[in-house]
Every structure is written in structure tokens, then in C-alpha cells.
Amino acid sequence: MNKAIMSLLCAGAVSLAGCASTKSATNSSEKGNASSALAAPTLYYQGHASVRITTAENKVIYVDPFAGDGYDVSADLILVTHGHMDHNKVELVLNRNEGCQIITHEQAVANGVHQTFDLGFVKIEAVEAYNKNHDRSKCVGYILTFSNGVQLYLSGDTSTTEQMPSLKSRKIDYAFFCCDGTYNMNIEEAAKCVELVGAKHNTPYHMPHEHENPFNRAFAESFAVQGLLVVAPGEEIRLD
Hints:
single chain, mainly beta, eight-stranded mixed beta sheet, six-stranded mixed beta sheet
């Protein structure tokens, strides 16, 4: 059985907590000896729906820039799930390496078809994301597959989608589910989506919050799912 192994260290990047928690959720040997020999990507949770990922190739990916800090690291790729202001503040990413790409919903859904982008250091697959507040043709989630074989699902803004049951056969390693209950599904519906998707490790994000308390740990820990992995803003996890 997989275990979430937690260790504390002061992160090299600036964190909201000053000293960020690095969590490593160690998978079984299903990926094979060759894959396990590769370095693991890391994911730094900035808050809300914003994450920064550093791949084994030292490529930096920002997804839905808006919240938190840590935007000083030069980007190689910026992903945006949709056009709402709390997901597409790409101007926060001032430093961009030569050839930095920006992929938004406009590229991710072409003529109603969800697209795949293979950049070598990561494969990006756009998946369905929609509800009464988000048009399915203008909003996506993403599955990222890294060179070590690990798959990360970021739901984007959504409720239950028709595609979710088909994702279970993918054996996704890490999944982040929105659950604010206002613009998206609530935490109970998100827990049902966890069962549909069947990922090993499941993290709530885009949660209800107050300006004075942007992260409610008690709420996050109430996410009644198998493989719960709570990640707070300013914490980093290894994707292995």
C-alpha cells in the first residue's frame, strides 16, 4: 500500500510559510525500474488553483497563475485552464526562458476537440471541465505526464464530467480537485469524483476561503477520500 511520507525542510523558493513542507508520496514499482531511476518532478502549491512544477529536466511549468508567491522562477511553460481572472494572471510570471510557451483553453480545445501537446519534458492532455458557471468549450482540466511516467490531473474549474469515469483506467498518480461549492462542485461531489477518477493521491484545491484565512486545513482534511494528500499554500510535494 502506498504511503504519504512527509518531511520538513526550508524550501529554496520563497514560501508563504517561510519554511515549506515537502511531502513525498512514494508509489509502488509499477512504473518499472527505468522510470524509478529518473528524478522526480516537484509541485509547489501557491494557493487557490495556482501551482508551479519543476520537472526532472529542470523545466518550470506554471498552471493558473494568480495566488501566492514563487513567481520569480523563470518559466518554460504556462498553462491556463480558462479565462476567469483567478486563473489567468500570466503577467505575474515576469521571467520567461527563451521559447516559453503559453497554452490556454483557446489552444486546448479546438473545434470542440480536446488537444494533446507533447513537449518532450512533459505531455499535456486537455480534459473536460464544465458546469453552469463554465462553458465546456472555454474551460479545461489538464493531465500532465512527466518523464518518470507519473501522471498529474488538475481538474480546473468543474463539476462532475462525462469523461471522468474513463480516466480511471489511466491509473493517475496525483489528482487535484476543485471543491469551493459556489462556482464549482462542493466537497461531497468532489469526493464522488475521486472515486470516478481513481487516482492514488487526492488533493483538494480551489477551496472556499476568506481573505484573512486563504487556507482552511480543517476543511481540507474533511475531504473524505482514499489517498488523501493535503497540500497547503507554500508546501511542495515530490511527484514520484
